[in-house]
Amino acid sequence: YRKDGSYLETHEGPSPHALLLDHALMATAPRRLVASGLTDALAKYYEPRDNRLPGSHPLEASALALGEQLFRLVIAHGTTAVKGIRGRLSPSRHAAHDASISLAGLIGEWGGKPYRHGLAHSLYGAWTFIGLTKSYLHGELIGLGLLVELALSGKSASFHQLRNWMGECGLPMALPELAIYRTS
Fold this sequence. Notes:
Blueprint: H1 23-26, H2 31-51, H3 60-83, H4 91-111, H5 119-128, H6 138-152, H7 156-168, H8 176-180
Helix pairs in contact: 2-3, 2-4, 2-6, 3-4, 5-6, 6-7
């Protein structure tokens, strides 16, 4: 990122050798941050379906299967995790956090670039140039980008399902700033 917050580039590098996940600490995270993280994780389900090249990575079938599992876990447990009592560990929070961190990381690694860089993430990069990252979290903008992606690809059932889920989690549904944005 540049100093002004605009996206510059993604640095590809080696995968981590270990993941330490403290569920007790994550249970104290603010609701907005939890919702944002879960929504960013959902991109690992939606984006590859419109962005991947068949057979582009040796572990692609595994990445797709993990994406399906991530989607089921986040949709089933995400709203409960977001709305849950802060600081309280619950099976829903545990499942949602595991999906949003562990599964999303594996999917991104096993699926390669098409599983990490779809339309929603491209829109996020563009939106950083008009300063939207000052008001919105990464996952909030990714969620809005996913809605755009689903609408443009004509997947209205998926669009409505995601939009309803985002509404239940208290995520933004539109960018009022774009309506007033003007080029100089």
